[in-house]
Amino acid sequence: MSGSGKDAPKDQPPRRILEIDLHGSPKVKILEEARLALEKREDLLREMEKHSGAFTLRGQLEQMERGSVLAHVREAGLHRFEEDSAMRTIREQFRDIEQSSAFSYAREAARLLEENSTIPRILEELKHNQAFTRTALGPMWELRQAGLFAEDAPWQRTAALARDAMTKYEARFRLPDQLESGLLAERFRVSAVAENLAIHHPGLADQGLQQAMEKMRTPWLDQQEAMRSVAGFAEIQRIGEAVRTMPAFDDSLAATLRESLGDWRDPIQWQPEIFTDLTARADFYVGLGFNPALTDFPPPAFEQGLEIAGLEAAPSESEPADSEEEDGEEAGLMRTNVAHDQLQRVERSLRRFIDKKLTRFCGPDWPKHRLPNGIYDRWQEKKHKAEEDGAEERPLIEYSDFTDYALIICRKDNWREVFSTFFRRQESVRETFQRLHPIRLDVAHARLITQDDEFFLRVEVKRLETAMCDA
User: Residues 339-367: what's their mean pLDDT?
Assistant: First the structure.
């Protein structure tokens, strides 16, 4: 790209910084270097639309940061002229550019893509395959809500493919009217799926399916596979009713959940790709027996179906974000942020519950005597380091890890004397925490989670909260 005004693209933003008259000033050379750096950054942004891979984006952003206008001018000695009003104006304008331009937008997009390794592969696959997978639906919806697939996105070609794929997927779904809902509910009642449900769970065979359908206000019925949508929707309602009405860790409830969520009782050797590759994780879930029809809905319909079933997320305890100040990260990780709040709340409850029960039975020094091997020393080490760094003193259990809770609850003497009353079977406790484990790791690293993850989270958090409330 030429540096002359007549060769500049018509849509190029005006450079107000060049309107400052510094002719004859020793700062002209600095300004010229700044102008060239700005042009370089704009060229890089235009090149980004040709790439969707996270590492390509990251490499370009590193170049942009090294060559950005603000850094370039600082290195050139702009701080020497802080008292110069014209140079202060330049500094302010450079700061505005860096904060409001596509630079910060692209940096956030690159972070999302890099930290969610399956997304670049999905985006790349969209160039060759227009089919949109159930696995990618939730994360791609969040990225779209964050504006990463907007028409003016730096990676316009890939963004167009993503928008087109999502539009085609959403077009498959419609909202049935009241008459059709009645007919669909009747068809389902005489189906083999409903018949099997009536045999094994007679109390849950008919939980007002038609009424639940009529409460929906957003398209949810797949026109290509209508009865699969009905069966998935009915199963969500059945699970919600079971979790609300049955003891949280009752054997019958555990068996009911295994039919839809899979059997997680055996110890799992976690493979690394489960935590970073959404497709690998979805295959892992299905391999354990998860029913994918439960989550094969557009995100608004999925959320509404959960709410009708009584599996809504509890309100966040944090202060509501100012919508005008909400940054790209918050918008881009909406589902992850909600999951983080849910897990944080249940972890605090678990710590209070465990501490209260063991203190009542063993006294306040229970950590010395009732923790599995190695955990007490690890907690003490974390506490000592935190206080050395200036943290205020907190109870020792505040330094526990998520994986510690099941070990403490299921330790033989703890289980026999304290926790068996609340959780019935150790295998059910391990099953719950194993279902939550991938989600806990992903939200801790700000990675996107799927609708499968969200379903596990809603069910298992509600079971844990119910068990602790009944204590």
Answer: 95
CB atoms within 10 A of CB 34: 23
The token pair that represents 139 in the structure block: 């994360």
In eight-state DSSP terms, residue 173 is: E
User: pTM of this prediction?
Assistant: 0.71
Token readout for 155 is 């990676």
Question: Is the pLDDT confidence value at 408 over 80?
Answer: yes
pLDDT(340) > 50: yes
Q: Compute the half-sphere exposure of residue 3: CA atoms within 13 Å on the CB side of its CA.
A: 10
DSSP string, 176-234: --HHHHHHHHHHHHTSHHHHHHHHH-GGGS-S-HHHHHHH--S--EESSSHHHHHHHHH
Burial class (CB in 10 A: 0-12, 13-18, 19+), 384: exposed
Q: What residue has token string 């290195």? A: 75
Contacts of 160 (CB under 8 A, 6+ apart): 151
Mind giving me the DSSP string for 335-360?
HHHHHHHHHHHHHHHHHHHHHHHHHH
Q: 24 pLDDT exceeds 50?
A: no
The mean-pLDDT minimum among 109-113, 308-312, 394-398 falls in 109-113
Burial of 61 (0-12, 13-18, 19+ CB in 10 A): buried
pLDDT tens column, 116-154: 555 566 666 555 554 445 776 777 777 766 666 666 665
**Distances in Å between the alpha carbon of 316 and those of 341, 353, 392?**
6, 20, 25
Nearest Cα neighbor of 184 from 216, 146, 148, 140 is 216
- CA separation for the pair 357, 334 (Å, rounded): 35
Classify burial at 87, counting beta carbons within 10 Å of its beta carbon; exposed 0-12, middle 13-18, buried 19 or more.
Answer: buried
* Cβ density class 397-413: b for 16+ within 10 Å, e for less: bebbebebbbbbbbbee
For residues 147 and 149, give the distance between their C-alpha atoms in angstroms, rounded to a whole number.
5
For 401-412, give the DSSP string.
-TTHHHHHHHSH
Residue 346 tokens read as 């249940």
Helix (H) or strand (E) holding 174: strand 173-174
Q: From CA 376, how far away is CA 367, in angstroms rounded?
A: 6
